Amino acid sequence: MSEIAIEELAARLGSVAVVDVRTTHEYDGSLGKPCDPRQGHIPGARNLELYRLMELDVAAIQSELGIEPGAEVVAYCHSGSRSAIATQIMRAHGYDARNYVGSWHEWSRHDDLPVER
Question: CA 80, 81, 86, 89: dihedral to nearest 10 degrees?
Answer without folding.
Answer: 130
